[in-house]
Amino acid sequence: MARSSPSPAQLVRGAKTAWGLLGKLPRGPRYALLAAIVLVGVGVLIVNRPPGVVGPGPTPETPETVAATGLNADGTGTFFFAFWNVENLFDDKDDKRRSVDEEFDNPFADNDKMRQEKLDHLANILLAMNGGQGPDVIACCEVESVRAADLLKATLNRHLDDAKADPKLKYTQVVMKNLDAGRHIAPCLITRLNVSHGFTRLHGGNLRILEGRLFVNGHELIVIASHWTSQLRQRDGSDGDSGREKYADTIYALIDRTVQKNPKADVLVCGDFNDTPDSDPVVKGLHATGDRAQVKPTDREPRVLDLMAGKNPANFGTIWYGGKPLIYDHICVSPGMLDGEGWGVDPDSVQTYTKGLTRGTRREPWRFGSPNSAPVGGRGYSDHFPVTVTLKLAAKK
Fold this sequence. Notes:
The protein has helices spanning 8-22, 27-48, 99-110, 112-128, 146-162, 241-261, 280-285, 313-316; strands spanning 77-89, 137-143, 173-175, 186-191, 194-195, 201-202, 209-216, 219-227, 267-272, 288-289, 304-306, 319-321, 324-326, 329-333, 343-345, 351-352, 387-393. It has 397 residues and is α+β, with helices and mostly antiparallel strands.
């Protein structure tokens, strides 16, 4: 078994012990030995410090345990990815949130039946995808806490047990960090693939930008899930456009730094951008395009491919806003996802999933509703539709 490196706390304790011993040495040897100890300690800290998004990363921290349905005998494979704004998924704890979240925090903690109804509704839809196996990677936003994500993972697994599904389809990993950014909601990943949790982080201060790293067959996939500023009226009277520009700029800086260091890096960006594929924050800030020919790793400012760009909202709309369907939820990929090596994507497989999620004839998501105001006809699911795509994997390294 490989030995783990010492933690910073262990280094401090060791330094105190060493200092006591050093006091017994003459001054010259004492300072020479002290300098050597400091250099070794700094080296260990640098080695253990998680870097920024520069992929590829290290060996995963967990064994290679992926769904049997995902990999072929030759090491190639296909995996199903879904992003969904699940609309106010809160946990079973009363956390005394600020007023904007108390409408959900207390009732979800106190009302077991309602909370479980929300979890069951989400699980039913997710597990209906991918031929009844559920997505291999689920990215969500509007999740209150790691605890809430764990509850959804447990519900998914209970449904799989009830269906007597292959045990290898169980979800094993939650990738998330709690965040209070105006509202106490954040993105998360739930997956049955292995994860290097040491690289899980939030970016941009109090922005809802989560980075997670997944590994299969030695190939690293960097997933950036985000939830951009809403178009609802902001405190400054604007529609949040400057906030969405900040999200776009922050995420693009991560992508650009990654691709400049490793042009083959496989990065998938997803989220509720609260803006359409042709908006300035998406096109100019995120450098997103629907033209695959423009996505080149060699460009000075490489672009990303927005799989929702150029799509008709009548068929791909993810929300109902202003009396019409709009595309606010996106999946974008870096140039490395198009090079036929490592992780890849089938752009033609992208779709907005609506089965069972609408009522009536118009393309409007059936909401779960607030705890005190259920929709007429009963509670639904979310005010957004999920967006899904098939990912591809090249042979093992």
